[in-house]
Design goal:
This protein is mainly alpha-helical and 223 residues long. The longest helix is centred in the first third of the chain and has 36 residues. Pfam families: Hemerythrin.
Length: 223
């Protein structure tokens, strides 16, 4: 195995992102089942949240597909390549569910149709099961490989690509999503390149954005 010299690469930011995805996907099915048939006021709130969630997950996986997996396949020996290929196949399964969800979600958001909502709730429950399986495997099997095979600069480059290509709309909310249950030390590193006054102000803004959003969607600031 081709390994980097010096200390292991710090991959903890991935665990912080995964905490957000686990939390919100776990709650998604219940949100959908809680919307009454025809209640379009509520369906627009829930639908916008779930659209944000699906786009965030798709973006996260797309960056890994383009940046992380090819680089790892160059570094790991042949006998470890199946771990990377497992990640790829799990992404395909998750992406298929996201695609089906995305085809149904706009119509349900506009109509709050009960049958469509029930189908979406089942899809999100299924997505949660497969997503947790993937995230657990990534943390247990893939990230230790990345920590040994990639330099910190290479790892950080993936984060730079993700930030550069992420939609600007909802940026504060996304950071607030990561911040809520994430490791405070890791979150501090995520905003560590910002100027001093911004680093002081940003956690307050992101926390406020998350709490406002969570109260509207989940009915609590601590979902």
């Amino acid at each position: 195995m081709s390994t980097t010299a010096g200390p292991l690469t710090d991959t903890r930011v991935m665990n912080t992102l995964h905490t957000f995805f686990r939390r919100e996907h776990r709650l998604a099915g219940g949100l959908l089942r809680g919307v009454a048939d025809g209640d379009t006021t509520r369906s627009r709130v829930v639908g916008d949240h779930l659209d944000f969630l699906s786009r965030a997950l798709h973006h996260h996986h797309t960056v890994e597909d383009r940046v992380l997996w090819p680089l790892l396949l160059e570094r790991v020996p042949e006998e470890l390549a199946p771990i990377v290929h497992l990640m790829e196949s799990q992404h395909e399964r998750v992406d298929g569910l996201i695609e089906e969800i995305s085809s149904l979600l706009p119509g349900w958001t506009d109509t709050a149709d009960a049958a469509t909502g029930a189908r979406l709730a089942d899809l999100f429950d299924t997505l949660y099961v497969h997503l947790v399986e993937h995230l657990d495997a990534e943390e247990q099997r893939l990230l230790p490989l990345a920590a040994r095979c990639l330099t910190q600069a290479e790892w950080d480059h993936m984060g730079e690509v993700a930030r550069r290509e992420a939609p600007r709309k909802g940026g504060l909310l996304a950071l607030g999503m990561f911040q809520h249950d994430g490791d405070p030390e890791v979150f501090a590193t995520m905003i560590g390149d910002a100027p001093g006054p911004v680093r002081w102000l940003l956690p307050k803004l992101t926390r406020r954005a998350f709490r406002r959003h969570a109260l509207a969607v989940h009915g609590t600031t601590t979902p």
